[in-house]
Amino acid sequence: MTGRICGTGSCVPSFAMDNNDIAKLVDTSDEWIRERTGVVRRHIIREETTVSMAGEAGKRALDNAGISAEDVDLIIVSTISSNVILPCTACEVQKELGADHATCFDLSAACTGFVVAYNTAVAYLNAGVYQTALIIGSESLSNLTNWKDRGTCILFGDGAGAAVLKKDDTRYYLPVTHSNGSRGGALTCKSRYDRSELSLPDLTKPDEKEYLMQMDGREVFMFAVKSVPQVIREVLEKNDVAQEEISYYILHQANKRIVEAIAKRLDEPMEKFPVNLEEYGNTSSASIPILLDELNQEGKLERGQKIVLAGFGAGLTWGASIIEW
Ligand code: COA
Hints:
By secondary structure, the chain is an alpha/beta fold. The protein folds into two domains: 2-168, Thiolase/Chalcone synthase (Peroxisomal Thiolase, Chain A, domain 1), CATH 3.40.47; 176-324, Peroxisomal Thiolase, Chain A, domain 1 (3-Layer(aba) Sandwich), CATH 3.40.47. Helices cover 31% and strands 23% of the residues. It has nine helices and 13 strands. It has helices spanning 19-23, 30-37, 50-65, 89-97, 113-126, 217-238, 256-266, 277-280, 287-297, and strands at residues 2-11, 16-18, 41-43, 74-78, 103-107, 132-140, 158-168, 176-179, 187-188, 214-215, 246-251, 306-313, 317-324. It has a five-stranded mixed β-sheet with strand order 1-7-6-4-5, sandwiched between helices. Strands 8-13-12-11 form a four-stranded mixed β-sheet. The protein has a two-stranded antiparallel ribbon with strand order 2-3. The structure holds coenzyme A. Coenzyme A binds at residues 28, 32, 36-37, 111, 150-151, 154-155, 215, 217-218, 220-221, 254-255, 282, 313.
């Protein structure tokens, strides 16, 4: 017994900034950003919020699955950048959708968050606790971005993606996840309780940067290209699945060079590694479900295909799961 994804949805802000817009804020260029990251544009919230995007992505996923909100009994939202602390984002989504029978909670595992949400939902379904789950990754990273730091502001974007899981008799694949808090200093952001405006922060205040993302880009890059192939091999081995059986590797969309390096280390063709980060940048826990939704809407996924989901990011955290479409 396990859960199968039976619907997907996504929602990104309508406003977008391309690399030339970023070059007006910091000393960089379209060429540099494309070459080093693959990012061309990123969508940035205006009227939208983490909650509103999560609700819309969730609604679209339910429509896609043909499942009524009343039938959902678990909602998990993965986010590190919500506009609400209480009630949690998942409860706000419940209210928005009218999913009155659902148990709702948020989880925080940065860019590994959607994989952790998937694993949590599947474990509940497998244990027989719930029958139908809605899992969402929603982020407004623009609120945590230091728009004066060219080492980070070129990378991130906002958006949400969602998937509906229904209990069925598909095989249960055991996931593999890891955390290493002692290396957490590579990507940090302190909590801030008093920032209600969405305006850009006052960077003249000496401590202001601490409340925005700070990153050792090279450290994170090296971590990703080493750890992700390892965890993918681990999850395949654990479930006795061969690489040849995998149709797609849907990786967290952080940097095109990271995806290419992972494909190379696994000795797999890039065709198995769909990429959409040129349009959205790194949307943390939203990146995997947005990509999954695009593949689904484009009709590229076929029933029975095995797909690996793999996330990595702050914590440090990383993990991989096998899904059967
Ligand atoms: N535009 C122009 N030049 C830039 C720049 C920018 N946006 N950012 C950095 N540079 C400069 C640096 O100052 C440095 O100059 P120097 O050689 O004169 O000192 C040079 O470019 C190289 O910097 P470096 O940091 O080594 O670049 P890089 O090739 O490692 O690329 C990242 C930087 C951030 C794109 C890359 O490290 C990365 O993507 N890391 C992973 C980050 C990530 O994915 N985080 C989220 C994980 S969930």
